[in-house]
Amino acid sequence: GQNIDQPTEMTATEGAIVQINCTYQTSGFNGLFWYQQHAGEAPTFLSYNVLDGLEEKGRFSSFLSRSKGYSYLLLKELQMKDSASYLCAVLDSNYQLIWGAGTKLIIKP
Amino acid sequence: IAGITQAPTSQILAAGRRMTLRCTQDMRHNAMYWYRQDLGLGLRLIHYSNTAGTTGKGEVPDGYSVSRANTDDFPLTLASAVPSQTSVYFCASSERGGQDEQFFGPGTRLTVL
């Protein structure tokens, strides 16, 4: 079967750094996405990785290791507005997205 | 219209009734998708369309149907609603599908009693 695992919830402090992990087992791999979803809103795109390594985009970075079936999203200089759920999704062999349940990130002052 | 819109925003429906959720995008995207999102579960794909005139089944298609008569519109129909279809429904689109990022509508919160 296909499986995406992420922690259910994480807590971090404003101004700090947090790493959200995602492990996956899917039928084929054509890339991994991270989306942000604020409560009651639609998901919005953060990053896409298809090659191994780190992609940096401002305060957010995303890492991929295809051999380990592992990715992480790194958020630096946390702000209160970063309180949201972070969704990991893998593009499988049929080019369909398989989604994790999401990690709810709580930022405390 | 800017981006992707859905209607209605929310709906309470009696079991057994027919319901169509509307989705319209003005980005001229080829690919469109319908997902449902339930607490504790990831987004699950219901149906998709890679281009106007074609549709395909996703992970959880039973009880739902779609049509794609033109590029902009992708309605989702529940022929006879059941309580297990209570969920938040998101429509999304992407330029070509596959590795392109998906843009999501604001969602429809549906309750079936």
In short:
The complex is a heterodimer of chains A (109) and B (113). Chain A is mainly β and 109 residues long.
For the sheet with most strands of chain B, the description reads: 7 strands, mixed
The N- to C-terminal Cα distance of chain A equals 40 Å
What class would the helix/strand composition of chain A place it in?
mainly beta
How can the largest sheet of chain A be summarized? 6 strands, mixed
The coarse overall form of chain B would be globular
Most extensive chain interface and residues per partner: A-B, 22 and 20 residues
The H/E string of chain B reads: EEEEEEEEEEE
Number of distinct beta strands of chain B = 11
β-strand amount of chain B: over 45%
Q: How much beta of chain A, percentage-wise?
A: over 45%
Order of helices and strands of chain A: EEEEEEEEEEE
User: Unreliable runs of chain A, pLDDT <50, ≥5 residues?
Assistant: none
Radius of gyration of chain A: 13 Å
Figure out the total of helices of chain A: 0
Descriptive account of the structure:
Chain A is an all-beta fold and 109 residues long. Chain A has no helices and 11 strands. Chain A has strands at 3-5, 9-13, 18-25, 32-37, 44-49, 53-57, 60-65, 70-75, 84-91, 97-99, 103-108. In chain A, strands 2, 4, 5, 9, 10 and 11 form a 6-stranded mixed sheet that branches. Chain A has a 5-stranded antiparallel sheet with strand order 1-3-8-7-6, with no helix packed on it. In chain A, a hairpin with a 2-residue loop joins strand 6 and strand 7. With 113 residues, chain B is mainly β. Helix content of chain B is 0%, strand content 45%. Chain B is built from no helices and 11 strands. In chain B, a hairpin with a 6-residue loop joins strand 5 (44-49) and strand 6. In chain B, 35% of the residues are buried. The mean pLDDT of chain B is 96. Classes of the chains: A mainly beta (109), B mainly beta (113). The interface between A and B is medium-sized, with 22 and 20 residues.
